Amino acid sequence: MGYDDRRLEVAQAAWRVIVREGLDRTSMRAIAQELGSSTGVVTHYFRDKEELILFALEQVVESTLESMRACAKGQQGINRLEQMIAAALPLTDSDRDDWKVWIAFLGYSIGRDRLIQQHQKRYDLIRQILYQELADLQVAKLIRADLDLTLEANALIALVDGIGTGVVICPDQFSAQQQRYLVHQHIHALQA
Amino acid sequence: MGYDDRRLEVAQAAWRVIVREGLDRTSMRAIAQELGSSTGVVTHYFRDKEELILFALEQVVESTLESMRACAKGQQGINRLEQMIAAALPLTDSDRDDWKVWIAFLGYSIGRDRLIQQHQKRYDLIRQILYQELADLQVAKLIRADLDLTLEANALIALVDGIGTGVVICPDQFSAQQQRYLVHQHIHALQA
DNA sequence: CTTACATCATAACAGTTGTTATGCTTCAAA
DNA sequence: TTTGAAGCATAACAACTGTTATGATGTAAG
Q1: Which listed residue, of A40, A72, B100, B139, carries a Cα 20 to 30 Å from A26's Cα?
Q2: Residue A82: which CATH number?
Q3: Percent of chain B residues topping a pLDDT of 90
Q4: Are A30 and A66 in the same domain?
Q5: How many domains does chain B have?
Q6: Min CA distance, A18 vs chain B (Å)?
Q7: How do residues B93-138 score in pLDDT, each as one tens digit?
Q8: For residue B18, what are the domain limits?
Q9: Model ipTM?
Q10: How far is B186 from chain A (nearest CA, A)?
């Protein structure tokens, strides 16, 4: 097992503690205990606590971005966009844990301008991806020509964010089927 | 100045610290300093830190619920629902601070089941209010008869939540006008 | 075998946390 | 005037925090 693998193990331990205990109760010692080791391991693979936490979050973000790209492949038209959006939703229990980390981090970022700026970059990236998808659909005349695509991309982001927080707080209210319906309904309204 | 007024002042000081510094950096001493007093004041008016934080959040929630009820008065039909939703949006800078507190609290609640349950109750209340509005609209045949109203109420909650987080993270992407457009677009799709 | 480095444990550091106890005012009731 | 409580300041408490230094172990290269 190489360096990067071990480093990832530490991050995943941190990730589990965040989901179970909350971000502010995720201390170096708690992470080490979750890992079954001492804090020496944690400090060995990460300079700061900040570096560790940011790395753990980046794993979650990259994971869902990868899922979105994977779902996009082989799909076309409206269905392609719909599948991409679905890939970002907390449809499974595992996805729900990802969203817990994400929301914990959003709250943690309030009052921390540096973290807010990092989130902005993430949102910019997602917005750019969705914009491109919408632009392709508009060229193919599959969605209305009068749509402000940047605005609609933001609408999609807000939709996913809203469903994500809804699932984390009230899991019973948002089944996978209902999540898909909400996305389908939203995208359907864009069609030409 | 009575007891309750002073108590509210303490909560508002905590509220300002949360917005500026973040929830996990909102210590008893930071609140006291923001208030221009000592920690003795804080402990005098609140048993726990938890009691203080929960009280501060409740103020925010009650404030926006009151705004929603006020906006509902004198309005009718689809416009009534639209105004109520708009009352919960972060259209002004002041509202944005409310949303910062809200989102900070959402993240803080991850891994704290008691807080999650309290949020569920809040969402249940809002869902009930929106359900009633939708039911009235459905009886008046102003929205489609085949809609699952509970699902649509959840959709409205998700929409507002998504816009709220979007504004907090990327204020430039969600102007008041654009927020209103997104709500209008969503509600318009429900019409009969 | 020796050297050097990666991996990890342990311990100590100074700082911060929430909580509690104590004492000092001020002011109204008896 | 005495009594008592409200309002508030101060200080101390143990517990916890992130960080750092030091030492022990294994293991691969020379």
Answers
A1: B100
A2: 1.10.357.10
A3: 97
A4: no
A5: 2
A6: 7
A7: 999 999 999 999 999 999 999 999 999 999 999 999 999 999 999 9
A8: 1-46
A9: 0.94
A10: 8
Over residues A82-110, the pLDDT tens digits come to 999 999 999 999 999 999 999 999 999 99
Task: Using an 8 Å CB-CB cutoff, list chain A residues near B110.
Answer: 18-19, 22-23, 100-101, 103-104, 107, 168
Residue B23 CA to nucleotide D14 C1', Å?
24
Q: What is the mean pLDDT of residues B50-62?
A: 96
Alpha carbon distance B190, B185 (integer Å):
9
Percent of chain A residues topping a pLDDT of 70? 100
**Residues with Cβ < 8 Å from B163, sequence gap 6 or more?**
A158, A162, B89, B90, B174, B179, B182, B183
Phi-psi region of B36 (alpha: psi -120 to 50; beta: other; left: phi over 0): left
CB distance A35 to A9 below 8 Å = yes
- CATH code of the domain in which B7 resides: 1.10.10
**In this structure, what DSSP letter does residue B38 have?**
-
pTM assigned to the model: 0.95
Per-residue model confidence (pLDDT) at position A1: 83
* Å from the B33 CA to the D1 C1': 38
Q: Which of B159, B68, B127 is nearest to A173 (CA)?
A: B127
Chain C bases having any atom below 7 Å from a protein CB: 6-11, 16-23
Measured from the CB, is A2 under 7 Å from any atom of strand D? no
Tell me how close the Cα of B182 comes to any Cα of chain A, in angstroms. 7
- Does one domain contain both A82 and A6? no
